[in-house]
Amino acid sequence: MSGLRERKKAQTRQALADAALRLFLDRGYDAVSVKEIAEAADVSVPTLFAHFPDGKESLVFDLDADREQALVAAVRDRAPGTNVLQGLRDSFLATPRPPETDEMRAFMRLIETTPVLASYFRRMWRRHEGTLARAIAEDLGLSPDDIAAKALAHFVLGALEVARSSADPAADLTRVFELLETGWGTSITK
Q1: I want to staple 91 with a disulfide (CB 3.0 to 4.6 A). Which of 56, 74, 85, 161 is the partner?
Q2: pLDDT number for residue 70
Q3: Pseudo-torsion of CA 81, 162, 129, 136, nearest 10°?
Q4: What is the mean pLDDT of residues 114-134?
Q5: In a shared domain, residues 84 and 124
Q6: CA 55, CA 49: separation in Å to the nearest integer?
């Protein structure tokens, strides 16, 4: 029974996120109300807020919690014999890259050109960075606010951002991880 309930909740959540994205891409973020999104997904406004309590912005980033959990899992569930950095690299490389479709380009443009979404994205990214830093610190037996764990989380997520827009993201991500593992001094020459 709980399996059915969870599937229905997931379906409703997905219907809301899909309706919101469709409306945002069609009319622009600011031109769409929460009520319109709920109606398009055939649910009530309170149901929308039950699934997305952070409001309209969170509808755009509906996979936020999943991505954050995946970061922690990359540290905790990595293959035996691999260090944290290798586990993160392997996890990132195993995650399929979203296809470069017109809709994906429009989605990215929506985030970049809508100040409230760009701000939400930055806050979400910083939260992910903090969560990853704490997972790294915990795994290595360090203080939760250890500067090395914070820096590693920052650089690892930065590598994702830089590699995302390159012609060969997997190769570039691998190169950045090699730099993180071996150090800049030994990897870059003049």
Answers
A1: 74
A2: 93
A3: 10
A4: 94
A5: yes
A6: 7
67: its two tokens: 């991505």
Residue 1's pLDDT band (cuts 50, 70, 90): low
- Whether residue 189 lies inside any domain: the answer is no
- Contact criterion met (CB below 8 Å) for 159 and 125: no
Confidence check: pLDDT of 95 > 80: yes
Q: What is the Cα–Cα distance from 42 to 11, expressed in whole angstroms?
A: 12
As given in the structure block, the two tokens for residue 115 are: 């100040």
Domain residues for the domain of 87 are: 63-184
Q: CB neighbours (10 Å) of residue 74?
A: 21
Residue 51: how many other CB atoms lie within 10 Å: 19
Residues 4 and 84 grouped into a single domain: no
For the chain, the residue count is 190
- How far is it, in rounded angstroms, from Cα 45 to Cα 56? 11
157-166, pLDDT tens digit by residue? 998 888 877 8
> Which pLDDT band, with edges at 50, 70 and 90, does 149 fall under?
very high
Mark whether 88 and 178 lie in a shared domain: yes
Q: Is the pLDDT of residue 60 over 50?
A: yes
Q: What is the DSSP letter of 167?
A: S
Domain harbouring 167, CATH code: 1.10.357.10
